[in-house]
Write a structure and sequence with these properties.
The structure holds two protein chains of two kinds. By secondary structure, chain A is of the alpha+beta class. In chain A, the strands form eight sheets. In chain A, strands 1-12-11-10 form a four-stranded mixed sheet, with helices on one face. By secondary structure, chain B is an all-alpha fold. In chain B, helix 2 crosses helix 5, helix 6 crosses helix 9 and helix 6 runs parallel beside helix 14. The radius of gyration of chain B is 24 Å and the shape is globular. Classes of the chains: A alpha+beta, B mainly alpha. Chains A and B meet through helix 1, helix 9 and helix 16 of A and helix 3, helix 4, helix 6, helix 8 and helix 9 of B.
Chain lengths: 593, 313
């Protein structure tokens, strides 16, 4: 017995010493280390398949695009990054010429592809390769829809077998540092795609060296490189400052919008203006899949900022203010609108739902939007009036959707006018679920069913997972469903396309809504450069769809983030990537905590 | 014994065919095929041409029997190709994740078995005493608290509030120990209740056998009887139990791995289910089957070695 106690004591002491030693190591490594997180495991670093937000965020620190978003502007304004300037666009809006910097270099931390580490220049041919890879069916790209049908010769090139030795007429390198792009029809949104990780350049040498596995060895020209020795896929991704990065400076205070100025403060903006980036020499992207762990790590100072898990919201934020306990720790709350919309859609191909506008209007008015906002979002969102979120051209703050409001009496009246008083004569509609494991989703569907039952409409839930949901949408089999859409780029066209007739499933128009007037306005606006005239067209189109009620409008969500006082220059960005370089921390303050 | 081992190994053939059939029926026939396809397709926008292209590329348009034999071939050659989500060879992923799971589960299992066997022996030896009763109560409490609750309490109080351990994390090499101490403790806490009860019952059963009475009649002391006779003879069911647990150790501890960010095989398997990564799922299921069958065989052989009365035939 004594021996056993002795052995156990030794084990416990060893563990304690190991832990104590580890803590000291951890403290030493905290010097200008930015601690960020993602809530899912990352996919391989293939720009052509950069469809998930989390991989894009990490890859955005490693790679660089032709264009990026101005960090301090309140709206999303493009600025040149690898490109030298904004493109020269022909008068007909079909030809773009993009001049690139000639002093941006790849960095290979493993010194395998480029034995000296510092690689060759980033060249026009690398961007051409990236766009060709998007079109190549074999790459299974998730970003091809951004280009399909728009670039002269690219669809044909892909259909003819994607021979990389053949030039694509509409996207080619004119010399080493000039790209020429020729469109089949005006597509002003294309510039935004050049700020997306889909188009990050990949050197052909990387693919040649590693073969099929090159996606696990990211090489870029961005502010950080991937530290393979320290990174553990599935647990953390460690990035270090790229010694050969073409240094950039923190933007001028004059470029900051009013909201950003209010958030950071004029003094901070002045203090940082013109300072060389990046501020932190290490960025650790922790992979944390459980929100309770994320929360504890934030409270423990192991994450520099955090969203607020649903279960912790009420104990953290009361009436949109942080609790005194949080404030006492110097933690601040940052609330921002996100560019997204949630909605419940009707299948407009359905012989009853699709043909009876008053029935859909009745269902929309039977849905208690305010209560849904309270129950499912803790009032941390705004009820959507149309599909265009605030902050985008075409959003009309004065418009009030007459059917996105809860009015049971009116709903019953509309239902009677639709020919189905108290729901009599209607079949039981089926609501297709996209998850059986998400409690919140199940509750949302139950809430919908309960709301409809108040006017006598029977709806039943059909269990299913995400692939089943997509498959049934593609087969036009989903009668009722609900989903959310987040912006890919800051243009209302990205949302309006969800109601555009030719985009019916398997395209993004899951409702299969097809209104000639809407389609006409969409087509007219989609080819125009941003202008008040275009915004007006967009607003009109959005309101037509809203009052046709092909969707029951959901919400535009708000982002609630908490920041520790040592995090200095964080600005909320819903779109784009590569923002770690702008973030600074006060390491001494963090260590003192 | 050699003949017996060869025969058991030959039994692997129908077992693998059976596992392949069950997998195939669940994932290819009943409803998984289209899930697999839709997991490959981009979620935001798809075209009919893309759907056809993917269906053809991954052979989902071929007859079922061809798909089944493909699966059997993959299982026999252990060539599952590449993970659909990670784009790495499945064998690389398995090799990378199994050792991490083993680092979590083997030491925890070892500590837990040593502690619970010691406590169970004491409980059996002092049967009916306050020690025995206390251990029974502790066992029942241990068996009643779910692992998830223990993890959350452990992270909240031992890691965050008291700062005794890291909340979660992982590093390569010996440094990983500091991230493993809390999961080891939690593993022990959750398993110890079951094991004390099982070991105590086993030892008590043994204590009532004739040879124990004979030993007592010969005048042997009760401590000697316990250590030399009861413990030794009680080892057969205990050994069976311990060896049968090993395949489960190699397949990881899902909740612990997920909450403590330990890149183990359990987490890999669950993620492959969630993301419909069939190549990884097939491989992990086969690995699990092989471990299980392999350790069943080892158990049988150990039986024969520990108890000369057992003959393998």
């Amino acid at each position: 017995m004594k021996k056993l106690i002795l052995v156990l004591s030794i084990i416990c002491l060893s563990a304690a010493f190991t832990f104590a030693e580890g803590s000291a190591e951890g403290a030493a490594a905290m010097d200008k280390q930015l601690n960020r997180y993602v809530i899912a495991k990352l996919q391989p670093f293939d720009p052509a398949d950069m469809t998930d937000l989390y991989t894009s965020q990490v890859y955005g620190d490693i790679g660089e695009a032709l264009y990026a978003y101005n960090y301090l502007a309140d709206t999303y304004v493009l600025k040149p990054e690898v490109a030298k300037s904004m493109p020269k666009v022909s008068a007909d809006g079909l030809t773009y010429t993009i001049e690139m910097h000639n002093d941006i270099y790849y960095y290979d931390p493993l010194m395998e592809v480029f034995p000296k580490g510092k690689g060759r220049n980033v060249m026009a041919k690398d961007f051409v390769l990236s766009v060709k890879r998007l079109a190549d069916p074999d790459t299974e790209s998730g970003g091809w829809w951004l280009y399909e049908g728009y670039i002269k010769g690219l669809d044909d090139w892909a259909a003819a077998g994607a021979d990389y030795s053949k030039e694509v007429e509409g996207f080619k390198a004119i010399g080493d540092y000039t790209i020429q792009l020729t469109l089949t029809k005006p597509y002003p949104q294309i510039l935004y795609t050049f700020a997306m990780p889909f188009t990050y350049p990949v050197p052909q040498e990387l693919i040649d060296y590693y073969g099929d596995e090159w996606k696990n060895y990211p090489i870029g020209s961005g502010a950080y490189y991937y530290d393979h020795a320290e990174s553990i896929p599935g647990t953390k991704h460690v990035l270090r400052a790229n010694p050969y990065w073409k240094a950039m400076k923190f933007p001028a205070a004059s470029t900051a919008g009013p909201a950003t100025t209010a958030k950071l403060g004029s003094a901070v903006l002045k203090e940082y203006e013109g300072k060389e980036l990046p501020f932190c020499n290490t960025v650790v992207w922790n992979v944390i899949e459980e929100s309770s762990v994320q929360w504890l790590k934030f409270l423990n100072g192991e994450l520099d900022y955090s969203s607020i898990p649903k279960d912790n919201f009420d104990s953290t934020v009361i009436q949109n203010e942080l609790t005194p306990a949080m404030t006492a720790k110097g933690i601040t709350l940052d609330v921002n609108p996100t560019l997204d919309v949630t909605y419940h859609f009707f299948n407009m191909d359905h012989p009853i739902l699709g043909q009876n506008t008053k029935l859909r209007q009745a269902m929309s008015m039977a849905y208690d939007h305010e209560k849904a906002l309270e129950i499912f979002y803790n009032n941390t969102a705004t009820n959507a009036q149309t599909l265009i979120p605030p902050g985008l051209g075409g959003y009309d703050p004065n418009y009030k959707n007459p059917y996105a409001t809860y009015n049971l009496a009116k709903a019953k009246q509309l239902l009677a006018e639709a020919g189905y008083p108290d729901g009599k004569g209607l079949p039981t509609f089926k609501y297709q679920m996209y998850s059986t494991s998400s409690t919140t989703h199940r509750q949302m569907v139950e809430f919908y069913i309960e709301n409809m039952s108040k006017i006598g409409i029977k709806v039943e839930a059909v269990a299913g997972d995400w692939p089943t949901f997509l498959e049934r949408i593609d087969n036009h089999e989903v009668e009722l469903g609900g989903v959310a859409w987040g912006a890919d780029y800051p243009d209302a066209q990205n949302f309006l396309q969800l109601n555009y007739g030719p985009n019916a499933a398997p395209g993004p128009n899951s409702a299969n809504y097809d209104n000639p007037k809407f389609n006409e306005l969409y087509e007219k606006g989609a080819y125009m450069q941003q202008s008040p005239e275009r915004d007006k067209l967009y607003a009109e189109a959005a309101q037509i769809a809203a009052e046709d009620v092909c969707w029951i409008m959901g919400v535009h969500r708000l982002s609630y983030a908490l920041e520790h006082p040592w995090l200095k220059t964080r600005v909320f960005r819903d779109i784009g990537a590569g923002y770690s370089k702008y973030l600074d921390i006060d390491a001494e303050m963090r260590d003192a905590k | 014994m050699i003949n017996y081992i060869i025969r058991r190994l030959l039994n692997l053939i129908p077992i693998i065919l059976g596992v392949a059939m069950v997998f195939f029926l669940i994932f290819n026939v009943i409803g998984g095929q289209e899930k697999y396809l839709y997991n490959l397709l981009p979620a935001k926008s798809r075209t009919a041409e893309q759907i056809d292209f993917y269906r053809s590329k991954y052979g989902l348009d071929r007859p079922f029997f061809v798909q089944y034999f493909d699966l059997v071939k993959q299982m026999v050659t252990f060539d599952f190709g590449k993970s659909e989500t990670r784009k790495l060879p499945v064998s690389t992923l398995i090799k990378r994740h199994v050792p991490n799971s083993a680092k979590l589960t083997f030491p925890a299992f070892f500590f837990e078995i040593v502690i619970s066997l010691t406590l169970a022996s004491l409980a059996a030896y002092y049967r009916g005493s306050w020690l025995d009763r206390s251990l029974t109560v502790i066992s029942v409490i241990g068996m009643s608290i779910p692992m998830l609750v223990l993890i959350m309490l452990g992270q909240q109080f031992l890691a965050y509030r008291l700062g005794l351990f890291p909340i979660s994390g992982w590093v390569r090499g010996i440094g990983a120990v500091r991230y493993l101490v809390l999961p080891w403790i939690l593993w022990c806490l959750v398993s110890i209740g079951y094991d004390i009860r099982f070991f105590r019952t086993t030892l008590l059963e043994e204590a009532h056998k004739d040879y124990v009475r004979t030993a007592k009649a010969k005048g042997l002391g009760s401590r000697t009887i316990m250590v030399r006779h009861i413990l030794r003879n009680g080892m057969i069911p205990i050994l069976t139990y311990v060896v049968m647990e090993i395949p489960f150790l190699l397949t990881g501890a899902l909740l612990l791995e997920r909450f403590f960010s330990i890149p183990g095989i359990g987490d890999l398997m669950v993620n492959s289910i969630a993301s419909y990564d069939y190549p990884v799922l097939k491989a992990t299921i086969l690995v699990y089957t092989l471990f299980f069958v392999g350790f069943m065989l080892i158990t049988d052989i150990l039986y024969a070695l520990v108890d000369p009365r057992v003959r393998l035939s």
